Amino acid sequence: MNTKLNYKKDQELHFVTTSEMKNKLKNIAKSLNLSLSALIAYVLMKFADRVKQRYCFGNEDGNIYERIDADASIHFYISKEDYRFLKKMHADLTQVCHGI
Question: What share of the chain is helix, strand, coil (3-state, %, to 5)?
């Protein structure tokens, strides 16, 4: 598996998760000799096209957020361009969810 990253680290992001999921991600990152931040950026890069396709052209799902009872957090870094895309997508989905 080629996990070489040529990725700008312009923007810090933070999300919450469960300790169990964070530990699983840490183990995967360790096995690939990556930092946790690099692993998350790698996954985002690999699935960016699918996310964009679903976001722009997929069926509406009512924007239901699943409760995960988070007890851990992760900070990671992505490019400004990807940050702007995620921010715009979140804003659009929140507007649809709240009927704005």
Answer: 55, 15, 35
